[in-house]
Amino acid sequence: MAPRPEGRGSLPRRLAALALPALLLVGCLGDQSALLPPGSDGDGEIAPAISSVRRTADSEHQRLLAAFGGEYRAPRVKAALDEIVQRLARTGEGQVGTFEITILNSPVVNAFALPTGRLYVTRGLLALANDTSEIASVMAHEIGHVTAQHAVQRAEKEAESALVGQVVSQVLKDPERGAAVQAGSKLSLARFSRQQEFEADKISVASLARAGYDPYGASRFLATLGRNSAFRNSGTDQSPEAKRLDILSTHPQTPERIAAVIAAARQIGAPGLGEHDAGRWLAALDGLAYGDDPRDGVVRGRRYLNSSLKIAFAAPEGFGMEAAQDMVIGTSANGAQALRFDSVTLKSGQTLEAYVAAGWIEGVETKGIIATQIGGLPGVTAYGRGTDWMFRLAAVQIGERVYRFILASRGSSDPERAMRSIIESFRSLTPAEAQATRPLQLRIVTAAAGDTVAGMAEGMPEQDRPAELFRLLNGLDRDSTALAAGQRYKIIGE
Q1: What confidence tens digit (pLDDT) does each residue in 246-295 have?
Q2: DSSP string covering 291-345, please?
Q3: What are phi and psi of 209, to 5 degrees?
Q4: What is the secondary structure of 362-376 as a DSSP string?
Q5: What's phi and psi for 366, nearest 5 deg?
Q6: Tens of pLDDT along 187-239?
Q7: pLDDT the model gives residue 399
Q8: Strand 377-385 with 389-398, pairing
Q9: Cα separation of 370 and 360, whole Å?
Q10: Which of 148, 149, 203, 373 has the fewest CB neighbours in a 10 Å radius?
Q11: CA-CA-CA-CA torsion for 234, 236, 238, 240, nearest 10 degrees?
Q12: Distance CA 98, CA 86 (A)
């Protein structure tokens, strides 16, 4: 998304703020954890009714919308999801009630629920599903968290853990023992949450079968999630295996979950049972926005373009970038350098040089302040050094707004050359260029005889590793080359 007022704090702190804090956790399926307090719309009965949760309903719902780009309007997809959830709810065990679905305008891959029955799914996750049973498995998983009241159980467990640590540390006057107890409690909570994920997966498989969907859709979609994580992580020097979640993770490893849901599906029947309607789901997806929202700026390869601000710049060679809440972030291929771009407003009477001298990063002294021109606009460059990082800073003033770059390099390596390439690339967009910055969309196309993965990938503009991405979007094997004539596939287009 576009940089918005005000950028605050250090890079790690602001990046960490992308995951919302939580008192109650209800499951998430995607690449990033969204830990959210509960919410409800306050209209009618949302399952299950939890009076203590309802009080914060509207505010938490709005906070969630703000964090994930607002609600995305996609009538065909929404209608398909509503039908799927109704089928799942009708066949649910016990007091199920009603559920309300919101599609979030975010390219991140995530789905989660509030304990009052609100279900959320990002358009980034929707793009990865390839048939009705796969997306139904996501909805069934989140419904499973709600009906099993996992959020309430987690809150009670956290309260118990906090009380035990407080008693040992304060009442028994033994801080070291208190710290040890708290560490053990965290491990217990992590295991507790992982068990919740397995339970929600098991509920999901059973729900799929009862609703008439292919119960193996859950394993196929989890496999796609694993491949998506590997695809996103492979831009760094760490292998996907090296990025495995540690023991305190709240989610089991994807291979563990795949094995568990396959075992559960086999208890129901052999593969081939139940609905897995690809044509219907792909028809609903046709035209779904893909990637960044152009109203807030978009990433095209190494380039960032913002049609509202009418500015553009390019990351250094070898960098990957993505738009995030209130900023653009990027990392080098080896993970040794990190880039952040955001904006702030100058105080009344404050000069650009004075703002830069006041310091951007806590604990880092700003040095070498030089006034210059960046893209024909007033600018300032500077540098600073922290304990583990060397920083290069640049700021461009447009009216009362300051658009700023922070480039960090691990260790003593000076990222001056990389910052210079960013500064030299910064420019204003012409009206024609701004108008031409259109959203990317999922397009559903029918393969003709002789069509190949490589040929389809060539038609996807400015995508990193387009052939690999095409296979990922369409659930194809890594070695797939030829396509089935007459079959429909997803591509990315304007």
Answers
A1: 323 345 678 888 999 999 999 999 888 899 999 999 999 999 999 877 66
A2: SS-GGG-EEETTEEEETTTTEEEEPPTTEEEEEETTEEEEEETTSSEEEEEEEEE
A3: -65, -45
A4: TT---EEEEEEEETT
A5: -80, 130
A6: 444 444 677 788 888 888 999 999 999 999 999 999 999 998 888 876 543 33
A7: 86
A8: antiparallel
A9: 15
A10: 373
A11: -20
A12: 8
Nearest CA to 208 out of 221, 197, 196 is that of 221
Whole-prediction pTM: 0.69
| CA atoms of 244 and 235, how far apart (whole Å) | 15
- Identity at 12, one-letter amino acid code: P
How far apart CA 248 and CA 194 sit, in angstroms, is 9
Question: In 318-328, which positions are buried (b, 16+ CB within 10 angstroms) versus exposed (e)?
Answer: ebbbbbbbbbb
- Residue given tokens 């990027």 in the structure block: 330
Phi-psi region of 42 (alpha: psi -120 to 50; beta: other; left: phi over 0): left
The region, left, alpha or beta by phi > 0 then psi within -120 to 50, assigned to residue 486 is left
Residue located via tokens 């079968």? 209
Radius of gyration of the chain (CA): 24
DSSP summary character for residue 73: -
CA-CA distance, 380 to 349, in Å (whole number)?
Answer: 17
How many Å apart are CA 242 and CA 236, to the nearest integer? 11
CA nearest 461: which of 230, 298, 312, 331? 298
* Of 90, 164, 168, 86, residue with least CA distance to 132: 86
Whole-angstrom Cα distance, residue 140 to residue 146?
10
CB of 121 within 8 A of CB of 107?
Answer: no
Q: How does DSSP assign 193-256, residue by residue?
A: HHHHHHHHHHHHHHHHHHTTB-TTHHHHHHHHHHHHHHHHHTTSSS-TTTT---TT-SS--HHH
∠ at Cα 215 (209, 221), nearest 5°? 140
Closest CA to 409 of 393, 433, 396: 393
Mean pLDDT (the chain, rounded): 77
Report which residue type is found at 208: L
Length of the chain: 494
Distance (Å, rounded) from C-alpha 146 to C-alpha 118? Answer: 9
Q: Is the peptide bond before 48 cis (omega within 30 degrees of 0)?
A: yes
Cβ(306)–Cβ(289) below 8 Å: no
Q: Give the least confident one: 143-157, 161-175, 209-223.
A: 161-175
CA distance 64 to 49: 20
Q: Which of 137, 116, 124 is nearest to 56 (CA)?
A: 116
State the residue for tokens 């780009």: 69
Q: For tokens 């559903």, what's the residue?
A: 444
Q: Which residues contact 81 (CB under 8 A, 6 or more apart)?
A: 101, 103, 121, 135, 139
User: Which residues lie below 8 Å from residue 412, measured CB to CB, with a gap of 6+?
Assistant: 390
The residues near 182 (Cβ < 8 Å, ≥ 6 apart) are 161, 164, 165, 169
Rounding to the nearest 10 degrees, give the CA dihedral for residues 57, 58, 64, 68. 140
